[in-house]
Amino acid sequence: MKRILLITVLLVSAHLSIFSQAAISYRQQAWELGNNLSRAALVNAMSDDVALAGRTFASAEANALRLKIRLPKLPAKTNDKIKDQAAALNYLLNVTGAPGVRILGQDFGPAHAALFELAFKINLLLMLPDGKEGKAIVDVINKRYEAAGLTPETFSALTMLVSTGAPFEEIKKEVFSVQKVTPLFVAVNEFTENGEAYYAQKDYARSAAEFSNALGISPEEPKFLYLRARANMQSSKFAEAIADYSKAIQFTQSAQEKRNLPVIYHNRGLCYALTKRYAQALPDLTTAIRLKPEYASAYKIRSMVHTQMGSIKLAAADRQQAETLQPGIMN
Questions:
Q1: φ, ψ of residue 127 in degrees (nearest 5)
Q2: Could you report the per-residue pLDDT of 234-271, keeping only the tens digit for each?
Q3: In angstroms, rounded to a whole number, what is the distance separating the alpha carbons of residues 240 and 232?
Q4: Interacting residues of 164 by C-beta distance below 8 A, sequence separation 6+
Q5: pTM, 2 dp
Q6: Which long-range contacts (CB under 8 A, 24 or more apart) does 169-176 make?
């Protein structure tokens, strides 16, 4: 059911940040609703650029539509900037902010409500960057980031600038940086959580689709490539899995990412074996064993590959090693 939600805020920017993703992250939409609506309100209250205010508000309406919210028009201008700013601020804080947080919390959950609130209150720093108002906004950030599923690092630079009374231009630059990066981070997290949940439910097709959404934002992330490959492997989509495992190997760089390489080589080797590409399976399984010498499953699968390739003695040695590492694995 559509609800009427009255929302606005203040922000200085002529840049619209609406993403053109086919897949919808509802948490991202909650963030963008607060961001775009606050930008629209600022332009409406503090600028004579009617077209820009209209375009920005249209972006907010698109966010609202995806969240099943209907927005009223922006407040009428008086052409007295002080009065218009005061009206916009009152419109947001006293009339619409709390209802918006409540509606999103009821319809979608606390994370969506917190993301919406953080997005528009961060933009308030462009009108109220210092003094008690700025510190009050920092307090909100510190209290709400966890509920939004974000980390302190997301806002650490911004809160430091406000708390130390940094120049307005520095605060503005950091506000724009947070507003640019955070919705992508939010969307990726939501798609990843969904993908993991579907995998746990053994809904592998939907799991793979969610990781495809995450890869649409971060196409070279080894973790998402691995997770999509894992889901596709469970659906017997071995060609797709092999392609993703290969990309995951290609893009793996950090020490933390490299910890997963034994599993990736093992799984790609298994995919090759299941598609009777034994000559390609063998080096992958050998690499998995080199990286993780106690990898019993890799020895087991390699023994089967050796058998298929006619290397009976090597197959027997691998079977014995697999049993030594994990008794009963060959049963």
A1: -110, -30
A2: 999 999 999 999 999 999 999 999 999 999 999 999 99
A3: 7
A4: none
A5: 0.84
A6: 171/125, 171/126, 171/129, 172/12, 172/126, 172/129, 175/11, 175/122, 175/123, 175/125, 175/126, 176/13, 176/15
